Every structure is written in C-alpha cells, then in structure tokens.
C-alpha cells in the first residue's frame, strides 16, 4: 500500500492549530496573573482594612470613650513629665515610666490602637509580628521582646507597606515633630517623631534594641536610655529587600 505524500496544506493547518492553542494558553496565563495581582493589591487590602476597622471599633467599645483633649489639641497631661533616668542615674530622653496595669497581651491579641495623623492611619496593634495572625490582617505587630507602650525602653512595631491593608504604606512621609498616639485600655501615650533611617538590612536588630541604634549605620539612633517608639516596614515599595525605620520619643500620656 502506497503512503500518501505529505500535504503542505495539512502541515499549515497543524501549525495554525498549534499557534492558536499557544496563544490561548498565553492569554489564560495572563488572566491568571492579572487576577493574582488584583487579589494581592486590591482584595487583600480591602479585606484587611475591613477587619482592622472592626477590631478598632471593638476595642473602643470595650474601653469606652478616650480621655479628653485640650482645646488646643494638645494632650491633657495630669502633671509635668520629669526627665527619665537610665541605669545608674544616667539621664535619658522621653518621659517617666507609666506602668501598664493589665497583664501582658497574648500572642496575636489586638490590645492597642495606633494613630498617625500625618498619614491618616488608625490601626490595631497586636502582639507578635507573624504574618497570618497579625500583619496579613491589616494589624501593626509588636515585637514581642521589646517594651510595651509607655514603658522605659523601645516600643517597637512592624507593619506591611504593600498589600494586606498596608498600614505603613506612607511611613516615609513622617517628619520630625509629627505626633503618634498609642491608645490602650489604661492610657493614651503620645510619641513625637524624632529620627529616621531610610534604609537598612532586615537583619539590623539594633534598630529595635532597648536603646535603638543601627548596627550597620552606626551614626543612626540613640546612645542613652529613654522611652522610644520604633516603626519598621519594608522598602523600597513592593520589595522586602531593606527596612525603613522611624523613631520617636514619648512626650505625654493621658490615663484613662
């Protein structure tokens, strides 16, 4: 039996069919990638912001109204804040200690509200910096081995800069003198932005030390005990290669 000679038309048909299938696969892959981007950049933000907002409302219902604010907008301070002192009587910076009256928060528990008027941020603060239980829910996470709000040492926090609520998206816009408040069941603590570090390595643990000072850029940070706030997030945007750091000092408190 003789074989039929190769048909050029049939070959062209097979080639065209292969090209159509390839094009459809490319389009499908593009749509899947587009959906993933939409999910990361829009949907995770929407869900996380909604959950964070509900958590803030729940905390404030539980605590009741915050303490009063003076007509000038300045915090009402019950008495003058004397200088803080460090070990051995060393003069420190910030305000006197205001010990919390409640037990330490549980892991992943939301227990405070962070407000940064400069960037329009109101977000719950939870214990720990795990992604699933804290950061991916739109919360700001407290580094567990650092001081609590109002305590001597360094109250250090982390938050997403992109996706999942991105509470620290505009952290780079903070300037010296900007006010940051941390509200808890017991008090409202006001910190004032003092310094920053535009870029450092994720391994730079010195920035969240009790006396914060970069282990890499050793000129950045402090040299004496005090009452500090540290905010950290990823930089540049849409990357986790480096960390952006903002430091503040405790300047006032209002007991509830």
Topology of helices and strands:
Blueprint: H1 8-63, E1 110-116, E2 121-127, E3 140-142, E4 153-158, E5 179-183, E6 187-200, E7 227-235, E8 242-255
Parallel strand pairs: 2-3, 4-7
Antiparallel strand pairs: 1-2, 1-5, 3-4, 5-6, 6-8, 7-8
Share of residues in helices: 10-25%
Q: What is the H-and-E element order?
A: HEEEEEEEE
Strand count: 8
The residue-averaged pLDDT reads 82
* Percent of sequence in beta strands: 25-35%
- Class, according to the CATH hierarchy? Mainly Beta
Residue runs with pLDDT of under 50 for 5 or more positions: 72-95
Give a short account of the largest sheet: 8 strands, mixed, barrel
For the termini, the CA-CA separation is 99 Å
Q: Radius of gyration, Cα only, in angstroms?
A: 26 Å
Tally of separate helices: 1
| CATH architecture group name | Beta Barrel
Q: CATH superfamily assignment? A: Sortase
Explain what you see.
The protein is an alpha+beta fold and 256 residues long. The protein has one domain (43-255): Sortase (Sortase, Chain: A), CATH 2.40.260.10. The protein is built from 1 helix and 8 strands, in the order H-E-E-E-E-E-E-E-E. Strands 1-2-3-4-7-8-6-5 form an 8-stranded mixed barrel. A hairpin with a 4-residue loop joins strand 1 and strand 2 (121-127). The protein is elongated and about 85 Å long. The N and C termini lie far apart (99 Å). Residues 72-95 have low confidence and may be disordered.
């Amino acid at each position: 039996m003789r074989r039929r000679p190769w048909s050029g038309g049939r070959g062209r048909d097979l080639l065209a069919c292969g090209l159509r299938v390839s094009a459809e696969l490319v389009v499908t892959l593009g749509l899947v990638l587009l959906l993933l981007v939409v999910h990361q950049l829009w949907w995770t933000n929407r869900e996380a912001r909604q959950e964070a907002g509900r958590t803030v409302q729940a905390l404030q219902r539980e605590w009741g109204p915050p303490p009063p604010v003076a007509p000038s907008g300045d915090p009402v301070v019950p008495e003058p804040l004397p200088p803080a002192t460090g070990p051995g009587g060393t003069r420190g910076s910030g305000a006197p200690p205001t010990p919390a009256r409640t037990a330490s928060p549980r892991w992943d528990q939301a227990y405070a509200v962070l407000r940064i008027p400069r960037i329009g941020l109101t977000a719950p603060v939870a214990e720990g910096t795990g992604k699933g239980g804290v950061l991916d829910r739109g919360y700001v996470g407290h580094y567990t081995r650092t001081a609590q709000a109002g305590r001597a040492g360094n109250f250090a926090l982390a938050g997403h800069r992109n996706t999942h609520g991105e509470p620290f998206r505009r952290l780079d816009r903070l300037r010296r003198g900007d006010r940051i408040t941390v509200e808890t069941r017991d008090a409202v603590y006001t910190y004032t932005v003092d310094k920053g570090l535009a870029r450092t390595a994720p391994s730079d643990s010195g920035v969240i030390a009790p006396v914060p000072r970069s282990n890499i850029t050793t000129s950045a940070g402090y040299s004496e005990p005090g009452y500090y706030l540290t905010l950290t997030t990823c930089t540049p945007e849409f990357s986790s290669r480096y960390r952006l750091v903002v430091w503040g000092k405790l300047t006032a408190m209002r007991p509830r």
